[in-house]
Amino acid sequence: MKIFLSKINESWIIDRIRNEWYQNCPNISTTKSSSADIVWIISPWSVKGVDKKTLRTKKVLCSYYHFEFDKFSIDEFRYLDQYVDEYHVICKKTKLDLQKLTNKKITSIPFWVDTKKFFYIEDKIILRHLFGLHSKDFLVGSFQRDTEGHDLESPKLIKGPDIFLDAVKKIYEKNSKTKIVLSGTRRQYIIKILKNLGIPFIYYEMVNFDTLNKLYNLLDLYIVSSRIEGGPQAILECGITRTPVISTDVGIAPEILDKKSIFSLDSFSECRPNVEYAYKKSEKYGIPNGIKLFENLFKEIYES
User: Fold this and answer.
1) What phi and psi, each to the nearest 5 degrees, are found at residue 173?
2) What is the DSSP string of 14-51?
3) Residue 273 CB neighbours (<10 A)
4) Domain 124-283 carries which CATH code?
5) Do the beta carbons of residue 291 and residue 24 sit within 8 Å?
6) 251 exposed, middle or buried (CB, 10 Å; 0-12, 13-18, 19+)?
7) What is the CA radius of gyration of the chain?
8) Is residue 233 within 8 Å of 257, Cβ to Cβ?
9) Residue 198 CB contacts under 8 Å (≥ 6 apart), including other chains
10) With 80 as the cut, is the pLDDT of residue 150 above it?
11) d(CA 290, CA 277)
């Protein structure tokens, strides 16, 4: 059995997932679609980069992450669907959306977490010292992109930067030691508003995995504020690093987090992170267990 993964090359989490698959599964993988038994369309739009003869003659699994139905093209979906044998999603919410469009088999499995990259660090004081942060600071994190690409100022509303800002305003009103820790590209909208509000922040635009893991570990709270989301992978990364995390009711949040860790703006004051609950739920998706779930899926497809 040989698996080929389509290419993305968009500096996105899926690029990382593709690389980690090839690193961890060399014996059942191939970089040549013609040599594959199964083609994994790791993102729907990447189907255009795969030879149509290959798609017609191989078994095809396609991953979907979330649906923005106001931007959705049924024609594009039908074009893709003609080649797909089975679908994969990373959360049950997306599975429900996809079931409205197809009768083909859909398997829901969150992506794995590389526990060599993301892990708990016990000494928080030393970590904060490394980043020039005070031990009494209350550090709230967000590591994603949330500005539209065309102007770098308009908020990408499905990512909920406005919800994040409303949340941190409430935190800052109660605790003047609050400081926001940002990472990721396209954070201009949040940075502009934080400056206007006078809420202190630090920004690390692009960091390596070692630094990202340290940033998770020095936080007092991570906030996922999305309106629409497939993952986000940050929920699993927070879980593995034992980073206190709360989230809107999106993506994998209800599958990984305690129900008391899921908030709306109306319920924000009652929301509480549950570190051990999130860790135990996330632990089963660490490598190698998380990848084994996908290996089993491909074995079923290959033998069907």
Assistant:
1) -60, -30
2) HHHHHHHHHHH-GGGB-S-GGG-SEEEESSGGGGGGS-
3) 21
4) 3.40.50.2000
5) yes
6) buried
7) 20
8) no
9) none
10) no
11) 18
Q: Which amino acid is at 273?
A: P
Cβ neighbours of residue 118 closer than 8 Å, sequence gap 6 or more: 209, 212, 213, 216, 237, 240, 241
Q: Which residues contact 247 (CB under 8 A, 6 or more apart)?
A: 223, 224, 225, 226, 235, 253, 257, 261, 262, 263
Q: What is the model's pLDDT at position 68?
A: 86
SS3 assignment, position 64: strand
d(CA 162, CA 302): 45
Q: Say how far apart CA 241 and CA 122 lie, in whole Å.
A: 10
Q: How far is CA 43 from CA 1, 65, 66, 171, 248, in A?
A: 21, 8, 11, 37, 24
Burial of 13 (0-12, 13-18, 19+ CB in 10 A): middle
Q: pLDDT of 215-230, one tens digit each?
A: 999 999 999 999 999 8
Report the DSSP beta bridge partners of residue 203: 182
CA–CA separation, 190 vs 291, rounded Å? 35
Cα separation, 43 vs 76, whole angstroms: 13
What pLDDT is stored for residue 157 in this prediction?
Answer: 87
**Coil, strand or helix at 60:** strand
Domain residue ranges of the chain, discontinuous segments joined by +: 3-112+287-303, 124-283
**pLDDT (average), residues 16-30:** 95
Mean model confidence pLDDT for the chain: 93
Q: What is the pLDDT of residue 11?
A: 65
Predicted confidence (pLDDT) at residue 151 exceeds the cutoff of 80: no
Q: Which residues of 110-141 are buried (b: 16+ CB within 10 A; e: fewer)?
A: bbbbbbebbeeeeeeeebbeeeebeeebbbbb
| Tokens 């660090």 sit on residue | 121
Question: 62, 41 in Cβ contact below 8 A?
Answer: yes
Say if CB 86 and CB 105 are below 8 A apart. Answer: yes
